[in-house]
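Researcher: Next entry in the queue.
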Amino acid sequence: MRRALLLLALCGTNALAQSEPLADPTRPPTVGVESSVAMATKPGPRLQSVLISPSRRVAVINGSAVGVGGKVGDATVASISEGAVVLVHANRRRETLQLITAVDKKERRTAAEAARGKGTSQ
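Model: Structure for this entry, 122 residues:
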């Protein structure tokens, strides 16, 4: 009798477990997916990466590496900074491509500066 009840209980919990899929803990959150999808489908040039070294500045725009003075469609790369690229189109219209939008960078103090009460606190 006990075995029959135990078997029945196990079968019932197995059916409940199969009714709901398990959540994947490694899956990225879905918050903001709509905005990233909208950005990915936005027409026009898209800044994907920036490489800045003492000797050169290169931006990856629509999958192609372009330096300052290089061409992206009808536009010329006017400047490359840490988070943005400025394009000047043939009709002299300027367009700024942002690498990451809405990021507020702040300078941090080291532990030694904090202990001495010096440095920027933000």
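Model: Strands lie at 47-52, 57-61, 64-67, 71-72, 75-80, 84-88, 94-98.
Researcher: Noted, moving on.
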